[in-house]
Amino acid sequence: MLLVFGGVGTALIASAFPYDDPANPLGVGFVGVALAFGLTVVVGAYAWGPVSGGHFNPAITLGLAASGRFPWKDTVAYIVAQLIGGVVATSLIVLIGVYGPGTWLADAMNGGFASNGFGDASPGGFGLGAAIVVEVLLTAFFVLIILGVTHPTRGNALLAPLAIGLTLTLIHLISIPVDNTSVNPARSIAAAIYGGTEALSQLWVFIVFPIVGGLIAGWVHRALLEKTPAPPAEETARVEL
What is the pTM of this model? Predict the structure, then answer.
């Protein structure tokens, strides 16, 4: 909920108030949106990483399961919680928008509600192939970095949330122009339900391919970067941050 509320909320404000418009000096631009997503992960991971592992993302949960760091039997509960949190966040943004200025809410919904997209729905006009590549590649890198910085012997528990948050910021800086950056199916679903028919029709891309990237990362990490067999998943259900 925090991740979607902070990131999508910032994206919607930034689009309503352009950062370079002297008449509306309230926007932060896409750099600010990237930082908003990254910072919410930083504070969320520091606050709740020791409680649940701080996944906040179905692709991360499935990637950790594929790596042997998280039990498969618990993935459904985590994903359901993530989806509920995301929908609550965008619903709260809608509630705020009901009392917003002028046609802010209608404009936000007509503009896709910060949903992910390709083709005409891409901020930079990138096509389906570009969206697939960036979602698989960047989600895989994201999960690999998470697995690296939270490793029980090689990782750094004190700095792990900061590294993860900065990685998500970098991912957004790279791919906001391509497809408005998903790497998180929960974020994509939460925005698309208020983003109109085009956002919903393209949503499958931002569910399938982040998950593909997360699974690839989990399997690669387990095969190449673990010199000893992974411990039983039940013993490492929580990623210690």
Answer: 0.88
